[in-house]
Design brief:
Elements lengths: L4 E10 L3 E4 H5 L6 H8 L3 E4 L7 H16 L8 E5 L10 H9 L5 E5 L5 H14 L6 E8 L17 E11 L4 E9 L7 E3 L10 H5 L5 E3 L1 H22 L9 E4 L4 H11 L10 H4 L6 H8 L9 E8 L3 E8 L5
Parallel strand pairs: 4-5, 4-6, 11-12
Antiparallel strand pairs: 1-7, 2-3, 6-7, 8-13, 9-10, 12-13
Helix pairs in contact: 3-4, 7-8
């Protein structure tokens, strides 16, 4: 028996219908379409308007599409991991709510919170369950309803974020495909630069915290930008060197969609041409844990079995990492 690897065998995705354009944002805050596009690369983002729908709604839609595409029955799922910073509730886990709503009655699951790096952290975690031989079908979800934690009077953050997410199915294989390697890091000294001030056990919700708008994303953009450029590029470069890969060996870079300038700096550091860099930030903005699975969903038809993909992300707190994936199927 050969080595068991965890292979991505299917991808599903979901974005809400409502499109929040830069032109509409011009009527809400002091900004312009040109300013947003030149600094972020974003033209529009999707917003989940239904006040009764949370992140689980995004996850359920993405997973149901995934199950249909892969001819997988809900009761066949062993494990569901949901990467999110916008859970429906503090508890129970959004993964548990999604499992219930799709009928995954034989699964267990939990949420992973690593901000924008959440999906790749969850992907590596799910792969270990497959590699151990314990499970055969693991669903990894990356989804966020960022509009629920954004102050739409704060032009430094409201122009960046959108709602959406995706899901992938991991299954065991003995072929030379799947999740080959990963490197992950975190550094809590970055917390002051990107966080939500209130709502946790350190600073519980009160009338004062609500009045002070402390339940929205706070970001010091220039500091976060510098850390992201350095660390996303470092991780991508390190995983290439660790696996003896050159730029010519990489078919696609799949980077977290935070800012086009960060993405450009990463692929330039890796020596990868822009035509092999996947981007949809112009249409979706930054969906936090949802960006990388949405890229896989958007560009799935481009991938061929055996293609080398580098997934790279950087998130608040700080968290960052990279995953080397060898694609397992032809779409």
């Amino acid at each position: 028996m050969g080595k068991i690897r965890a292979a991505i065998t299917g991808v599903g995705g979901f974005v809400p219908d409502y499109i929040l354009t830069n032109a509409e944002l011009e009527t809400m805050v002091d900004t312009t379409d040109e300013w947003i596009r030149t600094r972020t690369g974003i033209r529009e983002r999707r917003i989940l308007k239904d006040p009764k729908a949370g992140t689980s709604y995004i996850g359920v839609n993405a997973v149901n599409q995934l199950l249909k595409k892969t001819n997988t029955k809900p009761e066949e799922i062993d494990l569901i991991l949901c990467a999110t910073v916008t859970p429906d509730m503090v508890f129970p886990a959004t993964a548990t709510l999604i499992a219930s709503r799709i009928g995954a009655i034989n699964s267990f699951g939990y949420d992973i919170q690593a901000a924008c790096s959440g999906f790749i952290f969850a992907l590596t975690t799910g792969a270990r369950y497959i590699e151990s031989g314990a499970y055969k079908k693991v669903v990894i979800i990356g989804a966020d309803k960022m509009s629920s934690i954004i102050d739409y009077t704060d032009r430094t953050t409201c122009i960046i974020f959108g709602d959406g997410g995706g899901a992938i199915l991991l299954e065991p294989t003995e072929e030379e495909v799947g999740i080959i390697d990963s490197i992950h890091r975190h550094d809590g000294s970055g917390a002051p630069y990107l966080h939500i001030k209130a709502g946790g056990s350190l600073n519980p919700a009160t009338h004062e915290t609500v009045d002070l708008k402390q339940h929205y994303v706070y970001q010091e953009g220039s500091t976060v930008f510098k850390f992201a450029v350095t660390n996303m590029a470092d991780m991508a470069e390190k995983i290439m060197k660790k696996n003896n890969l050159t730029a010519n060996d990489i078919n696609f870079l799949v980077p977290h969609q935070a800012n086009k300038r960060i993405i450009d700096a990463t692929h330039e550091r890796m020596g990868i041409n822009e035509d092999r860099v996947l981007m949809n930030i112009d249409r979706y903005g930054n969906t936090t844990a949802g960006t990388i699975p949405l890229l896989l969903w958007d560009f799935e038809k481009k991938f061929k079995k055996g293609d080398n993909l580098i997934l790279s992300a950087f998130g608040g707190g700080f968290t960052w990492g990279a995953v080397y994936v060898k694609w397992a199927y032809n779409s």
